[in-house]
Amino acid sequence: MAVLETLHHNLVESAGVQAEGNARDLLAQLETGTEFARLRFPDPDDEPAQVVSPDGIVLAADEELAISGPIADFTPQSGGGGDQGGSGGEGDDEESDEEEDDDEEEEADDGEEDSGSTGPAGAREEIGGAGGVSQQSVGSSARTTDQGAADAGTTATEGATFSEVSLTMADSEAPENFRVAALPAATTTGQPVIIYAAASLDTAESAVADARRAMLIGLPLLLAVVAAVTWLVTRRALRPVEAIRSELAEIMHGDLSRRVPEPRSRDEIGRLAVTTNETLAALEKSSERQRRFIADAAHELRSPIASLRTQLEVAQAHPDLLEMDGVLGDTVRIQQLATDLLLLARLDAGEQPRADRVDLTALIEEELAHRIGDRIPVESALPEAAVEVTGSRTQLARVLGNLVDNAQRHAASTVRVGLGCRAGTAIMEVVDDGSGVPEADRERIFQRFVRLDEARSRDDGGAGLGLAIVRDVVQRHGGVIRVEGAPQGGARFIVELPIR
Questions:
Q1: What's the Cα-to-Cα distance from 356 to each of 365, 388, 419, rounded to whole Å?
Q2: Which intervals carry biased composition (Gly residues) (predicted)?
Q3: Angle, nearest 10°, between helix axes 360-369 and 393-410?
């Protein structure tokens, strides 16, 4: 509706400009001395115009204008101010006097002559000697109307007053709307006159009606087209999302090796597909690691359980042949493996270690005291001052025990444990004089169920979980572990833990 109102307003203003232009054209003719009877009027059907006296008598109009009386009855605003397209002030009076003298001379030579004529309806009045007129002085910023103009709904611009009227023309039965411009003027004798010029609003009303009709018809169609285009574009844009959803629905059945399609576009949907595939790859890797872990754990448990069962069956048939040492050894192996699996499960679940103050110096001394008399002796090089870190004493003792066990298993004659500090970091070393760890395998040995010497018996070599537990525990405590070659040969495991 705002569009229609704006269109109507602009067209009405355009008609007003046309009407004012016609009025000023008549005023210019009068100023050049054209008599009323010789005035050139615009089209009387679409742009009727009249020169009217203040008391409503039509002084001049087009002969074909079939309207009885003035086309408007509102009074144009007037007042002091600047010139509005005509002459004003004292200079205007002098010019008017000169014109009046010229007119009197012409009348003396040619005789008395009519200066006005009646219109088609007999509304013209004769004004003797009214050759030219001058526009009255009008306020340069007239924006308000007097009481009569206000009642007629008029508006004023600089030099002209406007109003809308309804006129019934001779060739039309229904009244038509016009925009009328009124300009005040005066004859050379000082008698005031009013120039009314009208412009038809039929074009404006037709244009608004056509626009309204087009909007009523076209707007629903436009909305339908917009809705259809929006649906098609949205469907096309979301088609890759549907493909991703469909593929994920298939993957939910258990095949993590499948991947969602990645669109060629690098927009948000493309990045979503890439991230989804990366997530699926991580899930596949985790699932494969878990499957392998379960298979290895089952394999490691099967041997001691089978051996224990065999010994128990033999003891059931021949009680005197029961070997208690073998039964106890297998039981301890099963218990140790179950303990390792439980610890790894807790670490995988994200269980955080306790925040206790742990003296590593005392921890090492306590661990080595339990190993006095072992086949491979353990030496130590410890600082006199205590070296404390924050963490779980039980888990850190497990780290030290696993490293010493691994070193004793591979050492030729001795194992050495050292402790020191550097730049806010506690450094613990476990060194053996064995065959060492090949550089290519120094990362792989920390994986679960990995044993470099597969030919070694499980009784001697363990299940391959000790170093995996060491790395997971150290990382949970914010530290790192690495393996290097020892200066005298063998392996050197270095654990660095932050001192907090």
A1: 18, 10, 19
A2: 78-89
A3: 50
